[in-house]
Amino acid sequence: MAATDVHAEPATAPAGPAPKVRLKARVTGESRVMTWIWNSVALAFAAVMGFPIYWMIITTFKTNKDLIAKDPTFWPSSFSFDSYTTIFDDPGFLSGLQTTVLITLGSVLLGVAVGFLAAVAVARFNFRGRNFFIVTMLVIQMVPLLAIIIPLFLVMKSANLTGTILGVVLAYLVFTIPYVIWTLRSFIVNIPAELDEAAMVDGCTKWGAFFRIILPLTLPGLITTGVYSWIQAWNEFIVANTLLSGGGKQTSMIWLTFYSTTPTRGADYGAQMAGALMVSLPVIILFVLFQKKLSAGLTAGAVKG
């Protein structure tokens, strides 16, 4: 038997790693010149929007000579704290601030608690009139506050709640609860109902699933609605001025409004600016502290998961 010659192909060396080719990523519409232009426009816009805040703050440190000068000064010749001394010496400032804190805290806690439970019921349960209830919450937010101030005053007067902090807190729930329900409903709808069912299969009750599943996942939404409800209640003037008239109490917004119109303080611009800054400072601090939570809450309620 003749042997067959098998010619094997020569073995080739293993190929090394392919050379890296650096491709320059190109973003559509990217231009360094346009980036500088838009950044400059944004900085100019920020300067225009921030100048009133700067002017308010710097006015509180000006002396009377700088305040009544013919030509405005963008930097005080000497710093003075007389405006703040005048504000804190006024007996109505601290009492008005205390009343505002009590009213705002009460309306936010009650509004978020009641609104959160109502939002869970609307998002998780089917009942007769559910869609009508949801639409009603939206319509209530569209009604101007001036349209209901007279009926609200008559109801509170018949219940002997005018001139009291409790009456103002209950009145604030009229616009706090619908906002909380409408906002938190979108957060709760985005939480899969299967998570509740899995928790109950593992032995949780409905309340256990609520505290272990719904409440932690809705926390960003609770913070968001709580902060915005706080800002809305803190800056409110019409309802508080109407219901507290004749009761000897006033909020900080009422105090600031009447302080600026008194004959003795009407021209004291430094004290007016100091009062406006002290009244708005708690809201600014609250917003800065919860800025990240607010951003997370706004985006979490907008994406359906």
Topology summary:
Blueprint: H1 32-59, H2 64-67, H3 82-89, H4 91-124, H5 130-142, H6 149-158, H7 165-189, H8 193-201, H9 206-217, H10 219-234, H11 238-243, H12 252-261, H13 269-289, H14 291-300
Give a description of the structure.
The chain is mainly α and 305 residues long. It has 2 domains: 65 residues, no CATH class; 216 residues, MetI-like fold (Orthogonal Bundle), CATH 1.10.3720.
CATH-defined topology of the largest domain: MetI-like fold
Indicate the low-confidence ranges by residue numbers. 1-8, 301-305
Q: What's the shape? A: globular
Spell out the helices and strands N to C: HHHHHHHHHHHHHH
How many individual β-strands?
Answer: 0
User: What is the CATH architecture term of the largest domain?
Assistant: Orthogonal Bundle
How many domains? 2
Q: How would you sum up the major sheet?
A: none
- The helical percent reads 55-70%
The chain-level mean pLDDT equals 81
User: Which superfamily, in CATH terms, is the homologous superfamily of the largest domain?
Assistant: MetI-like
At the first level of CATH, what is the class of the largest domain? Mainly Alpha
Structural class: mainly alpha
What is the percentage of strand-forming residues? under 5%
Radius of gyration of CA atoms, rounded to a whole number: 31 Å
Question: What is the terminal-to-terminal distance?
Answer: 76 Å
Supply the number of helical segments: 14
